[in-house]
Amino acid sequence: MLGRWLVGLLFVYLGLNKALHPDLFLKLVRQYELVSNPYLLNAIAAALPWFEVFCGLLLLAGVAVRGSALLLLLMLGVFTPLVLKRALAIAAAKALPLCLVKFDCGCGTGEVFACNKLVENCLLMVFSAWLLTGRGRRLCACFSPFRAAGKSPET
Amino acid sequence: MRKILLEGLLVAAIGVTLAFVANALSPRGLKLNRDYFHLSLQAQSVATNLSLKAAGAGTNSPAELLAARLKAFGLQLVDSNRVAQLFNDPRRQADLLIFIDARDEDDYQQGHIPAAFEFYDAYRDKYLATVGEACRLAQQIVVYCHGGDECDDSLHAALTLRDLAGVRKEDLFVYGGGFTEWCTNGLPVEVGGRKSGQLLDHKK
Fold this sequence. Notes:
- The structure holds two protein chains of two kinds.
- Helix content of chain A is 65%, strand content 4%.
- Chain A is mainly alpha-helical.
- In chain A, strands 1-2 form a two-stranded antiparallel ribbon.
- The two termini of chain A are 17 Å apart.
- Chain B contains eight helices and seven strands.
- The model of chain B has no long low-confidence stretch (mean pLDDT 87).
């Protein structure tokens, strides 16, 4: 339960940091060179931070926990390799060991050491996977739109 | 498992919808239909830089690469010596020669070239009327940001002024070294608003 709240709070915090400065987040997303279409780039930078806040709030409230956890796991599964790829590119360009690379990955925490961020993301993925199993739902609103009537929340 | 997937899809659908609504309502929200980085023009610049690197086999300096990149966009680069001359030009007192600070609002307030106009391109609607009018009256316009070949803000601001404010490209210059170089050279820095009169003491 405490872990669910912590992860929820973390995503709300990280999401808000980006949502309140979408211009800076847009520049960071662009640096990943994922998309060249300006409108798609804008859509990603505009929606992603608020979407993280939404998922974080759902985790805090205990609403649709497993669905939110699934989405967070998917996002982390996509972003973490991208962060690694970018860190490796910076390491190659500056002739630095990977773990000495410090850059703003667009995660909402400003500049971070690459290795620290990768470890953090892996831990978040593990915890999201754990939430996916249906655990950590004490003191939750325990609402899931697809829970069959009469079954307990844990099944 | 199927229920989890369906739940995830529902959360995604609602979340994305709410996210776009939040962006639309936020005063700092992004305009979805705007090309913030002039990406449609970027190909020219990339091609120029690639051909420069091929020709120079890695010997091109950052300044040369920046100059080539600006040239690809039809813009002119000025160096620190020229900028210092322009700053001391008497036309600046009458706003016939103006400086435009293309960095974000916080950076501008913390310090800028004295009497420089604030023009953060990401939120240009806020500044376009005032700065556009000043540009129409000016004979020369120098745009700057932090500096270095990684700083794009001055490039985007210059392109906006050229395309939306009708500034002639012959009158428009980009200061490559930017505010970082300006401060390194110990030149005057004004804090607060434009023409606030509060100058920063570099010696402190």
